[in-house]
């Protein structure tokens, strides 16, 4: 299914990952053709972007890549620290803050959320729009009721 087909059936945002990292021209064209509809997933390990389901390092520093594509018109970034994902050791707030500081668009944190305190901390960060909570909810460390209260 193409980006256009997805948008035609009502999808609000398209998240691009490896294909966009491997081919910046593809990303740029998608952003130009579909303004405010393209989000970009950046998965990093030790500061370097990973692609192909985290199997390959792109040998590209996350921050350098972001500087190169920052003016393409990406509407959101979803930043995942691979080393933290599913580990419930708190997100990599230091690296996320660097990404958010450079980014021209809002950032969503992913990977490592361990407690409601991580959610509260994310809410205070500049240019951070959200946080993805997974395993901590599945394991019961964070109750959905707590998240609803945090949204109020």
From the structure above, extract its key features.
152 residues; alpha/beta; TIM Barrel; seven-stranded mixed β-sheet
Strand-helix topology:
Elements: H1 3-8, E1 14-16, H2 18-22, H3 24-33, E2 38-45, E3 48-51, E4 56-61, H4 62-69, E5 76-81, H5 93-102, E6 107-110, H6 116-123, E7 128-132, H7 135-138, H8 144-151
Parallel strand pairs: 1-2, 2-5, 5-6, 6-7
Antiparallel strand pairs: 2-3, 3-4
Can you tell me about this structure?
Strands 1, 2, 3, 4, 5, 6 and 7 form a seven-stranded mixed β-sheet that branches. The radius of gyration is 16 Å and the shape is globular. It has helices at 3-8, 18-22, 24-33, 62-69, 93-102, 116-123, 135-138, 144-151, and strands spanning 14-16, 38-45, 48-51, 56-61, 76-81, 107-110, 128-132. The chain has one domain (3-151): TIM Barrel. The termini are far apart. It is built from eight helices and seven strands, in the order αβααβββαβαβαβαα. It has 152 residues and is of the alpha/beta class.
